[in-house]
Amino acid sequence: MTKKALGKGLDALFSNEIPVYDETEVKSIEGIQFIQIDNIVPNPDQPRKTISDEDIDELAESIKEKGILQPILVVPKNGNFLIVAGERRFLAAKRANLSKIPAIIKQFTDEEILEIALIENIQRKDLNPIDEAFAIAQIIEKYSITHEELAKRLGKSRTYVTNVTRLLKLPTIVKTKILENKLSRGHALPLLQIEDENEIIMVAEKIEKEGLSVREVEKLVRDYSKKKIKDEDNNRTDKEKELEPFIKEIEEKLTYKFNTKVHLQGNFNKGKIIIEYFSKDQLESFLK
């Protein structure tokens, strides 16, 4: 099935040139109509899981004064209308006690609904990184598409998509801090270089307590990694040190072969190989 250029299409749907809509004149505008607010339902797969009451209150006051500047985007669903984009406007309109709201009614597949909702929130710039990560992971898992393919649809790089989804590997307590805006994406990404979960939590708490900048966090993690390597080196036996050049050479060859980090643990007789991967695509590529 040919995919629609969703990112570009949103520019037309959410143009800043859209005027304030009045029910008496909206009938002449193609594709836009007023819908009873009680017939509209939120999207359960909406990427933005956290919307502050303060934001809704501010938008509700604006709607009372100026009306709704942009219609919401909906699809017909089970006798009602499902929100594809514009949930904040919908919630604010309800809070402003409006009975009807201007909407653009379209037909989209479930996959397109997810993509448009995600794109709209990304374009608004304030989508929480964890909400974004869950939404991206959901699309990838549910529709079995690659990081590269989704990145093109979102107008992002493959690296961006991969890094965002990696945030879901962080401990729950750290993800909660990100959801609460106590840590930014820039603070969180360096933490993925730390293997020990307790160490990640400890560093995250230090970031919050001391108000560290992203650069300070990056330096802190680099220093942590150097110290760990030094401690491990001090704990190695002479025999293990003799094996180091051999192990390192094999690691480098395997890293080149698989195009990802590879670690060897053990000796000449037995051990294990640890191959890092950061996406389903990368994992499947090892089997080719």
Protein model, in words:
With 288 residues, this protein is α/β, with parallel strands linked by helices. Strand 6 (262-266) and strand 7 (271-275) form a beta hairpin. It starts with 5 loop residues before the first helix and ends with a helix. The protein has helices at residues 6-13, 53-66, 87-95, 110-123, 129-143, 147-154, 158-166, 172-179, 185-191, 197-210, 214-235, 238-258, 280-285, and strands spanning 32-36, 40-41, 72-77, 80-85, 100-105, 262-266, 271-275. It has a five-stranded mixed sheet, sandwiched between helices. The model is unreliable at 1-30 (pLDDT under 50). Helix content is 54%, strand content 12%. It has three domains: 6-108, Conserved hypothetical protein from pyrococcus furiosus pfu- 392566-001, ParB domain (Alpha-Beta Complex), CATH 3.90.1530.10; 115-232, Arc Repressor Mutant, subunit A; 238-285, no CATH class. It has 13 helices and seven strands.
List the keywords.
Conserved hypothetical protein from pyrococcus furiosus pfu- 392566-001, ParB domain, 288 residues, two-stranded antiparallel ribbon, Arc Repressor Mutant, subunit A, 7 strands, 13 helices
Summary of the model, kept short:
The protein has 288 residues and is of the alpha/beta class.
